[in-house]
Amino acid sequence: MKSVLVTGAGGQLGMCLQKAAKKYPHLKLIFKTEADLDITSANQVEETFAHYQPDYCINCAAYTNVEEAENAKEKAFKINEKAVENIAKACQKNESVLLHISTDYVFDGENKDPYKETDTPNPINIYGASKLAGEKVVQEKLERYFILRTSWLYSEFGHNFFNTMLQKAEEKDVVLKITTEQKGTPTNANDLAVAILKTIDSGSEKYGLYHFSNDGEATWYSFAKAIFTNAQKLDKVNLIASNAYKTKAKRPVNSVLSKEKIKSELNIKIIDWQESLKSLQGN
Known about the structure:
Blueprint: E1 2-7, H1 12-20, E2 27-32, H2 42-52, E3 56-59, H3 66-69, H4 73-94, E4 97-103, H5 126-141, E5 145-150, E6 153-154, H6 161-168, E7 175-179, E8 183-184, E9 187-188, H7 189-202, E10 208-211, E11 218-219, H8 220-230, E12 238-242, H9 260-265, H10 273-280
Parallel strand pairs: 1-2, 1-3, 3-4, 4-5, 5-10, 6-9, 7-12
Antiparallel strand pairs: 8-11
């Protein structure tokens, strides 16, 4: 039985992995929340790996607040780079395969076409820069790894755009100005969780960098509209498309990811974001 250590198990992807794990009873998943395992502590990481000696590690732990990262650069790099180094070293020592989650925000958004794994990263915010630094640490320390870049992650768990929109729909006389400036792909974290476990279950040794999101593309406005439409609450909100939404952190205008590599190399099937969203909302 393959043993799999999951860090950051209390976050939305960690929760989705706990849900998906029920379909993989032959995998022994060991879930560690932030309270259980502080990945910024090299000693804690080393002791945890020594105790469990996992065949795989899925690193879901990350600093993901894009806005706050602009004012918390040190913290973002401590978690997204330095702590990743702790995990990579432990994987190296224990001969564990690392599956590390990264982001579309490593790109500047100036591409017209979907970003491929071979495109040159050029982050335009602190969060993206810290995640790219983490990628480099994994690539420098390990030979056996899967880096999975994903985008616009949402699920029924935790704090995310999907849950925020549904909460807003319950408020009275709510006016929502949602940007049309950014194009990307909403990704159901449940789909990502299944893709991760399928990769482990397959025993694939086609290590390297991969992109995973649902298929298709959207703006944040069209994503919000789809959420309200599926929930039959579009008439309960005043949804306004905006092309002048101000944020502290610069965002890539286009962050659509190409998934051709993961489809062909790892045989991962991917569905359209609208179909996945409908499925989550029970439609």
